[in-house]
């Protein structure tokens, strides 16, 4: 992971609504990942969309562990 490939987004936990800063590694391109909430420790599912043309972060979708993203 390269530091210049990291982008931050301010997001809210889909379980407890706690705001936190999510660091996204855009060098991985489009991908799915999970991260535990820093407040309630619930598993958050994340769908990361990165433009294949520009390489820029297009969207970050968060859901509960059993959601279909």
UniProtKB/TrEMBL annotation:
Classification via InterPro entries: zinc_ribbon_bacterial
Protein name per UniProt: CPXCG motif-containing cysteine-rich protein
């Amino acid at each position: 992971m390269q530091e210049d490939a990291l982008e931050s987004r301010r997001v809210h936990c889909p379980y407890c609504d706690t705001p936190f800063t999510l660091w996204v590694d855009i060098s991985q391109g489009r991908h799915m990942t999970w991260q535990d909430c820093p407040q309630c420790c619930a598993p958050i599912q994340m769908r990361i969309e990165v433009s294949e043309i520009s390489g820029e972060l297009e969207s970050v979708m968060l859901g509960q562990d059993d959601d279909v993203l």
